[in-house]
Amino acid sequence: MLQSLFLLRGVALGLLLGMLLTILLRFRDIYALKLLAGFCLCLAGYLAAPLLQGQGGLFYVAVIFADAAVLLFLLLVQAQFCDHRRPEPLALWFGGLYLAASYTEFALEHALGLELAPLRLGVRLAMLGGALCALYLVLRNWQADLVEARRRLRMAVSAIAGLYIVGVTLVESLAGDGAVPLWVEVANSAGIVASLLAFIAAALVLGPAGLLPADEAAVHPAAVVPAVASDPELLMIVEAMEERCAYRDMELTIRSLAEHLGIAEHRLRKLINQRLGYRNFNDFLNHYRLAEVARRLADPGESRLPIQTIAMDAGYRSMTTFNRSFRAAYDENPSAYRRRYCPKIE
Predict the structure, then answer these.
(1) What is the pLDDT of residue 311?
(2) How many whole angstroms separate alpha carbon 79 and alpha carbon 323?
(3) In this predicted model, what pLDDT tens digit does every residue of 263-279 receive, in sequence order?
């Protein structure tokens, strides 16, 4: 069985090396794939660490990479499925605190022989929390995702990577200080090989549309003026949003809009994504909602109307979501925006 363990881990390391070289040679300038390359290194460290015990520096390097796997996976999920262009500060704070605790616990145990059970438990809980958070982000906007290939990738990642990471973390946490049985290590290695093969197969089937994030140099959808006059379905969509203000409905979903317009849901997704340029239905709604809010905030005739009322009229049910979206779009908060256009308002 020990030979099977070495064989499986060797195959997994070979697959990871192939993925890493592919990214470095073809996609090294894409943020999300840089994170994927980092995750490959972390997973390689996780696989190699048990095989390098007693090898001094190599073992410590492998552990350093292995412990960073959860952080890299979280950042990768945010980049791939939330269209982040840079690391989110909150994720970096979490990663920094988690890694500091993890490396401290490792150093105390291996350098000084001290075993702090509460610190070890905290590290395990943080690891599990990071994995669960990543899994939540993968599934959160599945319904609103307009990129069909990426919607399928969400399900693959949640099944292959998210649940697997959570499962491994739970098993290793339950094992505690005791040695993990060899058959568990072999099964774990076989699962990693199967997951990597499944991911590679999904990449081949889905192609670039399912794996690559939006082109950072692309024109923002708000700046695109589609030629809708010759397309009745596009005209229906634009009229529903611009003339009938369908976006004001707080409960509006891609499914309910499709039913209202009499267009098949998959067809509506394709139209909004490929013809109007949006990758997420929430971004599509935000474009219209924020435009209305900005117009009304700059209107002196509505200067005494509470910002919350204007936001809710436009379809927002959460002020937290509204404020975050407004700042992202206009680089200032709604109050500052209103004061700029209506300076006499307190």
Answers:
(1) 95
(2) 21
(3) 999 999 989 988 888 88
CA distances from 119 to 101, 108, 177 (A): 7, 10, 13
d(CA 291, CA 326): 10
Q: Partners of 280 in the beta sheet? A: 145
Q: Are 105 and 120 in contact (CB under 8 A)?
A: yes
In this structure, the chain runs to a length of 346
Q: CA 220: distance to chain centroid? A: 20
**For residue 181, what is the DSSP state?**
P
Tokens describing residue 168:
């491994």
The 10s digit of each residue's pLDDT in 178-223 is 566 677 778 778 878 877 887 777 677 666 655 665 554 343 444 4
Tokens at 272, concatenated? 């909004």
- Kindly report the number of other CB atoms within 10 A of residue 180's CB atom: 14
Kindly report the three-state secondary structure assignment for every residue of 44-100. HHHHHHHHHCCCCHHHHHHHHHHHCHHHHHHHHHHHHHCCCCCCCHHHHHHHHHHHH
- Smallest Cα–Cα separation from 310: which of 295, 324, 332? 295
Quote the CA–CA distance of 31 and 79 in Å, as a whole number.
7
Q: Tell me if 184 sits within 8 A of 170, measured CB to CB.
A: no
What CA–CA distances, in Å, run from 146 to 51, 283, 338? Answer: 43, 10, 33
How much is the pLDDT for 333?
Answer: 92
Which amino acid would we find at residue 79?
A
> What is the three-class DSSP state of 252?
coil
124 versus 327: which is more confidently predicted?
327
What letters, b where the CB count within 10 A reaches 16 and e where it falls short, cover 241-257? beeeebbbeeebebeeb
Contacts of 342 (CB under 8 A, 6+ apart): 297, 298, 300, 303
More confident residue, 5 or 253: 253
